[in-house]
Amino acid sequence: MEARFKPGDAVRVRNIYPLGHIRTPFYIRGHSGVIERFCGTFGNPEELAQQRSGEPKQPLYRVRFLQKKVWPDYQGNPDDVIEVEIFQHWLEGENG
Amino acid sequence: MKDQGSYQPYSYFQLMEVSLRELLVEKGIVTEAQLAATVEEVRNITPERGARVVAKAWVNTEFRKKLLQDGTRACEELGLEIPALKLVVVENTPTEHNLVVCTLCSCYPRMLLGMPPEWYKSRNYRSRAVREPRAVLSEFGLELAQEIKIRVHDSTADMRYLVLPMRPADTEDWSEERLAASVTRDCMIGVAVPRI
After folding, report:
1. Over chain A, what is the mean pLDDT?
2. Which residue of B has its CA nearest to A82?
3. Which fold does the domain A10-93 belong to in CATH?
4. Residue in B with minimal Cα distance to A45
5. Residue A89, burial from CB neighbour count under 10 angstroms (0-12, 13-18, 19+)
6. B152–A83: do the CB atoms touch at under 8 Å?
7. What's the Cα-to-Cα distance from A12 to each of A90, B41, B93, rounded to whole Å?
8. B149–A83 C-beta distance less than 8 A
9. Residue A86: its chain B contacts at CB < 8 A?
10. How far is CA B148 from the centre of its chain?
11. Is B154 close to A85, i.e. CB distance below 8 A?
12. What pLDDT shows up at residue A90?
């Protein structure tokens, strides 16, 4: 699977709730962030958890989010961030 | 205090562990000796490994650069194997503090820090470190000034994180070994900073 995003790209985490072994935390779904780095491609954990091959491997990114946007009542520095590893199939480009 | 003399029934998870282990041995998938060796190996990894990496980065600028660029490769140079997973080293600066959590389970750089502490796996830490990191740090005795930015790292997938703390002031003439002794496990998770 080819990497669709590069560092600095604006992305949004898909706001979906499939069943199974999912490594995208609930709290970050639907939120917008910026690609911090590309981490490489790795077996898809949702497939691996079902004893399948994990193929095709998925590009993995670290995505950076502003805390004050993730938690509306966030107390702290307005520039505080949270960075989360998210697989490509959970991301969509902010500009379509 | 547990009453040493009285009978303690297995807890749910202990019973599950014993059952699974005995089945694996019975079916010949692993041997008792292999299990014992693996437990021994895991026990032998202590945070001193991570501290060695940090101290090296403090005294050697080239190594520090490599470590921040590709943590796995830099550690391999020190003879520390990082199997399969990738190590991301994040650096504290006067304006930025890093904190590591795994909200989904207990992902942790075991190859450098050993087994994670109980609190790292607790629901309390996992849910609050992302939502109110400053309050959590304050409970650990670390009061961060509001102008210092916090970067929280949720290790949700294949990366493992190590915080590179700032070298304490007035340690210019310290040896690498002495520096390493000042680096605690908590400093490398980001809930503390080295104090000398």
Report:
1. 95
2. B152
3. SH3 type barrels. (2.30.30)
4. B157
5. middle
6. yes
7. 8, 42, 29
8. no
9. 156-157
10. 23
11. yes
12. 98
Structural domain boundaries in chain B? 12-43, 48-189
Residues of A in contact with B88 (CB under 8 A): 39, 62
Classify B48-189 by CATH class.
Answer: alpha beta
The DSSP output letter for B160 is E
pLDDT band at B142 (very low <50, low <70, confident <90, very high): very high
Residue B68, chain A, CB below 8 Å: the answer is: no
Q: Which of B148, B156, B87, B151 is nearest to B126 (CA)?
A: B156
A89 interface with B at CB cutoff 8 Å: no
* β-bridge pairing A81-87 and A58-66: antiparallel
